[in-house]
Amino acid sequence: MPKVDLAQLKRPGFIKQREGEYFTIRLKILAGNITSEQMLVLSDIANTYARGYVVLTLRLGVEIPWVKTENLEKIKDELGKINLQPGGNGPTVRAIVACKGTICAHGLINTQRLCSLLDKEHFGKKLPSKFKMGITGCPNNCAKAQLHDLGFMGQCMPQLEESLCEGCLACIKICPSGAIEKVDDTVRIDDARCIKCGKCITICPEKAISVKKQGVVLFIGGKFGKSYRIGERVGDVVSIEEAMVFAGKILKYYEDNASPGERFGDTIHRIGIENIKICLNLPIEPDRQIKQS
Predict the structure, then answer these.
(1) Closest Cα partner for 24 from 79, 70, 64, 53?
(2) Is the CB of residue 174 less than 8 Å from the CB of residue 254?
(3) CATH code given to domain 6-86
(4) Tens digit of pLDDT for each residue in 150-194?
C-alpha cells in the first residue's frame, strides 16, 4: 500500500478499515436526500472500485467500503461530477440529521430548509471536538433532539378563544399529554403540560384554538456514546431565523471556550449552565424539559 497520511485522509471522509489496504469513503447526504441519478452513479462506483454495495449511516449519510488507496482520488472526482462530497469526520461540525417533518403529517416546521441553512453556514467548521446537530419536526422527536450538541424541535403554541368554543371536547380526546380539560362550557389549556404538538389546533371544528407561535425550541449540550448527557432546553419557541442566530452564537462560544477534545456538553458542565446562559443571553428552562412517553 502506498504511504499515506491517515489523519489527513480521515478528516475529509476517507476512513481506514481494519483491513490495512482498504478504506471506507463517507459521504455527506444533505438531510438524507439523494437523487436517482446520484444513486446510479454511486452504484457504478461501488461496482467498479469496491465490492458492489454501499452502507447507510445513522446520520443519513452513505459509505462505500472496500476501496483501495489508489482509487480514492478517482472516486472523489466521480463524486464531484454529481455534486456529492466525502466528509463528516474529525473535530468539526458533522453532517446534520433532519427528520422528514417537511412532508410528514406530524411535521410542524420545514426541517429540510433548516437543515440546508445550517449545513451551508456551519458544516465542516473546525471546532475543539466533533459537534452534532439534529432537527426533529415535532414532539414525536424521531431525530432525538436532546441527544445532540445542538438540537432543534418543531413546536406549535396553541391559544384558545373561549367565545368560539362549543364544548365538543374533540381537543381533549386528541391531546397526547392531557393538557386540556373541560371547565364549565369551554376548555382550558394547561401551558405547563402542553407539549406544543398542534394536534388540538388541527382538530378543532370551530377554530377556537389557533396558532399563537410556531417555530422551534433548542436543546444544547446533549451527546450519546460511551457516556451520555441529555441536552437542556433553551428558552421557548423561536423562529427559524432566530434559531439560526442562536446556532451561530452557540458555536462561537463553544469554539472560544472549550478545551481541546472537549464535547460541548462537558464544556457546559465545567463552566456551568447559568454562566453560559448569561454569556449567550439564552434563557434556560431545565425544569420544563419535554418528556417523551
Answers:
(1) 64
(2) no
(3) 3.90.480.10
(4) 999 999 999 999 999 999 999 999 999 999 999 998 999 999 999
The C-alpha atoms of residue 158 and residue 195 are separated, in whole angstroms, by 10
Cβ–Cβ < 8 Å for 117, 193: no
Give this prediction's pTM: 0.89
Of the candidates 147, 30, 132, 25, which has an alpha carbon nearest to the alpha carbon of residue 86? 25
Q: Among candidates 214, 180, 183, 177, which has minimal Cα distance to 195? A: 177
Q: So what's the architecture of 97-158+212-288 in CATH?
A: 2-Layer Sandwich (3.30)
Residue range 192-220, pLDDT digits in tens: 999 999 999 999 999 999 999 999 999 99
Residue 62 grid coordinates: 452513505
Q: β-pairing, 62-68 with 22-28?
A: antiparallel
List the chain residues with pLDDT less than 50: 1, 286-293
User: With contact defined as beta carbons under 8 Å apart, do 157 and 196 qualify?
Assistant: yes
Instruction: Copy the grid coordinates of residue 235.
Output: 428558552
Please state, in angstroms and rounded to a whole number, the distance separating the CA atoms of residues 205 and 208. Answer: 8
Question: Using a CB cutoff of 8 Å and minimum separation of 24, what contacts does 163-166 make?
Answer: 163/208, 164/206, 164/207, 164/208, 165/206, 165/208, 166/205, 166/206, 166/208
